[in-house]
Amino acid sequence: MKNKRSLLAIPYVGWMAFFVVAPIIMVVIYAFTTADFSFTGENFTRMGTFTVIFTRSFKLAIIATLVCLLIGYPLSYAMAKEGKGFQRVAMLLIMLPMWVNFLLRTYSMMSIMENNGLINQFFAAIGLFDLINNVFGTDIHYFKMIGTQGAVVVGMVYNYLPFMVLPIYSTLIKMDNTLLEAAQDLGADTATVFRKVILPLSLPGILSGVTMVFVPSVSTFAISRLLGGGIQMLLGDLIEQQFLGGAYNPHLGSAIALVMMVIVVACMWIMNRFGEGEEQAVML
Amino acid sequence: MKKLAIAALACVLVGGFCFSACTIERIDPEADSNTTATNTGKRVLNVCNWGEYIDEDLIAQFQEETGITVNYQTAESNESLYSLLKNGGANYDVICPSDYMISQLIEEDMLQPLNYDNIPNYSYIGDQFKNLAFDPNNEYTVPYTWGTLGIIYNKTMVDGEITSWSSLYDDANKGNVLLINNSRDAFGNALIYLGYSVNTTNEDEIRQAYDLIADATRRGVFQGKVMDEVFNKMEQGNAAIATYYAGDYLSMYENNSDLAYVIPEEGANWFVDAWCVLKSAQHVSEAEEWINFMASTDASLANMDYIWYASPNTQALEKYPEYYKETYGEELDPELYEIMAPSADVLEKCENYVVLPQETRNLYNDLWIQLGL
Amino acid sequence: MSLNKKNSLGNRILIGVVFFFLYAPILLLIFYSFNAADSSVVWKGFSLRWYAKLFQNQLIIKSVYNTLLVSVLATLIATVVGTLSAIGLYSMRRKFREPLLTINNIPMMNADIVTGVAMCLFFVAALSGWNYLASHYRLIIDLFGTQYRVTFHQLSLGFGTLLIAHITFNIPYVILSVAPKLRQMDKNLVDAAQDLGCTWPQAFFKVILPEIMPGIVSGALIAFTMSVDDFVISYFTAGSSTSTLAMQIYSMTKKGVTPEINAVSTILFGVVLVLLIIVNVREIRAEKAAAKRVY
């Protein structure tokens, strides 16, 4: 009986073969061929040119992930301490922004951070620029935010913070209270309880949060385009450009996508070694 | 039971796919078997044009007049249109690329010759827009718009008047210059500034143009790479200098009168965008109706008024100042009209793009990617 | 988890600041949807004109319709297939289950853009193969003496491929949230039910389903949210003739987002907010009623 029940998974196994495995095989094929589909390794030897973009993308993604973690963990911790009434809505409050399309939210961010945007208008209104100009003898009328890497990181943090908070928060609220009490009864102070009990127990949440922030950050193209002005490309921009953008070459694009995928998978694998034995990715 | 559930699920999925993928009809032995081949049902047309490049009322009007449903899509630049077509994801019938891209598409056998008998309004197209390099025998195209690519700047943000392409690359307006986001125009501008032809195939000259832009990028001259984002950026005063098309300048000028347009003393590029039908098009007769409609004098006038790009329709060109007066009750500023439809001696200074050989195109692509590094 | 009694003021401030950061841009765009002017910077008085204009804008209405349709369909199919597959996978021996779960995780762990371009390449190849066959072959079926002609259409990227892509990236989320509930469930329950004379479907509907229901609901919720919010995968798989709200917005971010988009987002946001409030209020009432019954 039991094994017959496993037949229920058969349609999905077929589905995966078609729509998950086959597409990735296509990417591999494209990556190793030229425009007329003869074998070549040239797409990969050209990869050296893009080292700058790889480093930049990974650097920004790592910064964004760290910032998300530094904001997200204390936030989840603070939220988990709130009463029952808040807990009920907390999850929804975190997910609710996702109901406004992320492009639109990013666009809204952009109008806030423009040279003539709300932040700069606000600073001008309170006379901050006059003050700075008087004190330092400079002549500035705005802070340049759009087009900088900082703006891109802010955009990533803004968009992907919920992905960090959700899994951490859900591991924290599931945590068994008696464990913490036991630790305290045995003489651990608050810091020790946190370090020895809470942190290790919430590690699976942290790991899946890090994954869920890092992966989209390293591959984004819309955010860098809107907030970064498109001057300094990220990996996502580079790949998009090869497929639907201004420099058509799906073979090179596939090769870049493949290399990015391999690096990301390697990172995830190494990271998950730390959390080995823990339950796999958690979200809700 | 489980098997039944699986079978049902499989049937639904496969059935759903087949439903959209084929039609099953009974063969009536008496009827002529060829009649089924003709298309029944509603007529559809897939159009791909540039963003902000049509008076949208015209689409509605066309649908009403002909009963054809128009799927109207936009592309960002000639290069990204080419990607869309090559990638195979698009199923456009009629597209509106620029001159050099048309040659490239013809070269790659992606366009089909038009039947000009179905496009009587072609006769209104001015002679100076016929027999151009991209379609020497007038087989594939019907011109839609034409104009120049010059410098747009904000008079309140720039010291003095701008007369040269050098303003794009020097430090005077550092951080406030917008680079145009397509390789052909961006390199083209640099080539003109350096005194070379926009159609040069000399690798050394192209590399010099690249160095010029790359160096300016390194110094932080450019605020961003933009195409249609330029509208917001310039109208709201978030950037001081940009290169863009004359027609779009006039649209921006409507919203911000501090903006000025100049064709630099070194010269500029002038372009023709034309309708063409793809070889893979499935709605050819609808496409020809569309092209004919767009070439009509009335549609051209409405378009000129809405998008501010000059039409190649000679009647429309002539009538436009009068049309403007009738619609708005005031004279059209001749200076604006000159920007829209520059006179022959201005065009003399300007060069038209022609298609580059594959080798040069690859060089453009490679250098363009390197600019983003 | 509640370590100490009361939440400190610092924590409250942190929550406040972060939520302000998350919601400020949204509030801003809602605010400007009521702007009389055509701008997201200058306020020129209250007006509903963008809401009126919205309903005349066929492009936006169509893209909202596409978005909702694809999200609802993909969520429904993914929830059913995902739940059944989760049950199936957890009845398998470990040897088979582990590799399958790894493959299942691919669409979730992979960068969207890689999934997007991979599917794009695959669909384009598959469709051009199909189109070649369709233009060269025609099938005639003889069924009970009547002949039927099957004409194959030329296919291109469109709603169908968009739906397949959404289903594919939704199923893993459903499986992921159903799986823990299955693991928690007492395996003997089903056997007991069947020993007591339940058929398998009965056991499924009366025993398994109620146990894993919370997992299914949250899986469906995540799937739906992911579908609505997705841009990158849709961008590569929807082709040229179908466009979702996200794609519409992307093309608009280039030439300037008109406040109509703010208006449509405000409406969607408002609907979701109201729905969530209703659901929550009902839950609270139900809980209170249950509590009364106990005492």
Binned, the helix content of chain C reads over 70%
CATH superfamily of the domain at 51-245 in chain A: MetI-like
How would you write the strand order of the largest sheet of chain C?
1-2
Structural class of chain A: mainly alpha
Radius of gyration of chain C: 25 Å
Q: Given this structure, which CATH class of the largest domain in chain C is correct?
A: Mainly Alpha
Helix content of chain A: over 70%
Q: What's the rounded overall pLDDT mean of chain A?
A: 86
Per DSSP, the total helix count of chain A is 14
Structural class of chain C: mainly alpha
The amount of beta strand of chain A, in percent, is under 5%
Low-pLDDT regions of chain A? 277-284
Main sheet summary of chain C = 2 strands, antiparallel
In CATH terms, what is the architecture of the domain at 51-245 in chain A? Orthogonal Bundle
Strand content of chain C: under 5%
What's the β-strand tally of chain C? 2
Order of helices and strands of chain C: HHHHHEEHHHHHH
How confident overall, as mean pLDDT of chain C? 85
Order of helices and strands of chain A: HHHHHHHHHHHHHH
CATH topology of the domain at 51-245 in chain A: MetI-like fold
**How many strand segments of chain A?**
0
What does this entry look like structurally?
The complex is a heterotrimer of chains A (284), B (373) and C (295). With 284 residues, chain A is mainly alpha-helical. Chain A has a domain at 51-245: Orthogonal Bundle (MetI-like fold), CATH 1.10.3720.10. Chain A has helices spanning 2-5, 10-31, 42-45, 51-81, 84-95, 102-113, 118-125, 128-136, 149-174, 177-185, 190-219, 222-227, 235-243, 250-274. The radius of gyration of chain A is 23 Å and the shape is flat. The model of chain A is unreliable at 277-284 (pLDDT under 50). Chain B has 2 domains: 43-144 and 271-338, 3-Layer(aba) Sandwich (D-Maltodextrin-Binding Protein, domain 2), CATH 3.40.190.10; 147-270 and 350-371, D-Maltodextrin-Binding Protein, domain 2 (3-Layer(aba) Sandwich), CATH 3.40.190. Chain B is 43% helix and 18% strand. Chain B contains 15 helices and 12 strands. In chain B, strand 2, helix 2 (56-66) and strand 3 form a beta-alpha-beta unit. In chain B, helix 6 crosses helix 7 (203-218), helix 7 runs parallel beside helix 15 (358-371) and helix 11 (297-307) packs across helix 12 (314-328). Chain B starts with a helix and ends with a helix. In chain B, 47% of the residues are buried. The model of chain B is unreliable at 31-39 (pLDDT under 50). Chain C has 295 residues and is mainly alpha-helical. Chain C folds into 2 domains: 12-47, no CATH class; 59-277, MetI-like (MetI-like fold, Orthogonal Bundle). A two-stranded antiparallel ribbon of chain C has the order 1-2. In chain C, strand 1 and strand 2 form a beta hairpin. The mean pLDDT of chain C is 85. Chains in contact: A-B, A-C, B-C. At the A-C interface, helix 1, helix 2, helix 4, helix 5 and helix 6 of A face helix 1, helix 3, helix 4, helix 5 and helix 6 of C.
